[in-house]
Design a protein that fits this description.
Elements: H1 5-15, H2 22-34, H3 37-53, E1 55-56, E2 63-64, E3 78-85, H4 88-97, E4 102-106, H5 124-133, E5 138-141, H6 147-161, E6 166-169, H7 185-193, E7 196-197, H8 198-206
Parallel strand pairs: 3-4, 3-5, 5-6
Antiparallel strand pairs: 1-2, 6-7
The structure holds zinc ion (ZN).
Length: about 210
């Protein structure tokens, strides 16, 4: 016997979520059915509030529910160091290591010619602006260790050279081709500490 349409519909929605198969979707739908209306309401509200209320920080493009994110507004952090990452998820990955106390700049993507994404689609002008208008001394490039991440790092290096800031690149321990967010905490932490000045790296990639 098929489920009533309303259950079937909710199961279809849950099954769209990453990692949720039909069996889990079924369990979730029945969980909702068996719990008070308020709990369903709370879940529905949270989903919509996230969609409507979350935005990108005006300074660093990290996800935030305020105009300026918690990291940018934290006066105990080192304003002179900015770690450049591809995605807000990378900020959370680095924060979990607890070994970085500087600021961030989220590019919201990478240079990916195959997908029609060029530097103009990234938040690079905003970064250059920050460098010229604040006391940034060092930029740590923490894009992924895959082709797109390396291409983006190389482009950034060229753009940043004339600004005179110290440029470094994380790398040690992050497997080539891999994504930052999946690196384990100690690897990521080591990788940040062992960042290399970019001069030699720029030449390496250009070969
Ligand atoms: Zn911010």
């Amino acid at each position: 016997m098929a489920y009533p349409k309303l259950i079937e519909k909710l199961m279809e929605q849950f099954a769209k979520l990453p990692g949720v198969g039909r069996r889990s979707a079924e369990r979730m739908a029945f969980w909702i059915l068996n719990h008070p209306r308020e709990e369903a309401q709370e879940l529905a509200d949270s989903i919509l509030k996230l969609k409507d209320g979350l935005r990108f920080c005006r300074i660093c493009n990290n996800l935030s529910d305020t105009e300026i994110c918690l990291i940018c507004s934290d006066t105990n952090r080192d304003e002179g160091t900015v770690c450049v990452v591809e995605d807000p998820k990378d900020v959370f990955a680095i924060e979990r290591t607890g070994s970085y106390r500087g600021h961030y700049h989220v590019l919201l993507g990478t240079i990916a010619p195959a997908e029609g994404r060029g530097p103009e689609d990234l938040k690079i002008p905003q970064l250059l602006n920050r460098i010229s208008s604040t006391q940034i001394r060092e930029v740590v490039i923490a894009t992924d260790a895959d082709n797109e991440g390396e291409m983006t790092a190389l482009y950034l290096t060229k753009q940043l050279k004339s600004t005179g800031v110290k440029i470094s690149r994380i790398g040690l321990g992050i497997p080539v081709g891999s994504s930052l967010e999946f690196a384990d905490m100690s690897t990521l932490s080591m990788s940040l500490k062992a960042r290399r000045p970019i001069g030699s790296l720029g030449e390496e990639i250009q070969e």
